[in-house]
Amino acid sequence: MNNYSVLSQFLVEIKNPEEEGLYNLYYHNCGNYEVDSGYSTNLTVYLVESNKGNYLSAGQMPLPTFFFTMCVVYFIVACYWLYVLRTSSEGVFKIHYLMLVLVYVKSVALILHGVNYTFIRVKGHREEAFAVLYYITYLMKGTLLFMTVVLIGSGWTFVKHILSDRDKKIFIIVIPLQILANVAQIIIDETEEGESQYTMWTEVFILVDLLCCGAILFPVVWSIRHLQEASQTDGKAAINLQKLKIFRHFYIIVVCYIYFTRIIVYLLKITVPFQYEWINELFKEIATLTFFVISGYKFRPATNNPYFQVSQEDDTEMDEVVTQPGAYEGLTHVNVKFNDGKDPADSAVSTLKQRESSHEYD
Fold this sequence. Notes:
Blueprint: H1 63-87, H2 94-123, H3 128-153, H4 165-189, H5 196-215, H6 217-233, H7 237-271, H8 278-298, H9 313-322, H10 344-358
Helix pairs in contact: 1-2, 1-8, 2-3, 3-4, 3-6, 4-5, 6-7, 7-8
């Protein structure tokens, strides 16, 4: 069999605005169409795309400026959230600081993303060091986001102060899936669309991402069910119903965020003209920022926040009921209205001591 080597070069120059658009390059091995031809080829393409010295496409040109701008916005939001936590006189929980770390990581990921696009615009390729740093922060951001949503959805520190075995199983499932989804997205970004791996990893990313989005909704649903049952059984029905209403709001927010960033943004990407491809990134970041701001507002440490109106006293009382020995079964604690001739002040002190002793192990 003879071996042939062909070297060709061609230039496509767009001079008129009417000729602007998206162009595809197809290669056909005509000899391979014949039965038992045995023809095989090895194609190597060096493709240079330039828009008057700018190596970004028309739809990506605004992205470096946009990512730098959003980085500043997220950094300001993170600093304001830190100020709220440091100056708050109310209870500040660990999850509040986890939300703070998430916003800072998001800001760092955006600035590295902007740097990568800047190198592509100037040199035509990414700088490997900044690309690796971006992918690390991208992986951290995705994992922290799903961890935060799962923790809030399970009611950790707001409804209950420990994670149940069911919640831990969700973490065991969601976190590895989210890491796999982020790895698939990284491989997709670094793979050309014509390669076979691109289609496979794209399908893996879509499937795993949908599984993650569906899994993080379960803790929210369980928390809603827990509060609904508690509002019908314990003596603080009004407060539990108020918390139940807000958890339903959070459930709707999570669903809207997932629906918008996974479906609406994709529809925008495939429908808008080529020079407006950056709009899908704009809507995605605006939706993410809105989700962060609304979640931070609903779960902020404040005196009028319904999530903090149920103190740990409820959990303590429940623990006391569960750990009562069998000898006390059937007995009911009754508040005594008389003091057997004792001084009212002594009676008040005795009652106060009893309340303090009941919280000895809080």
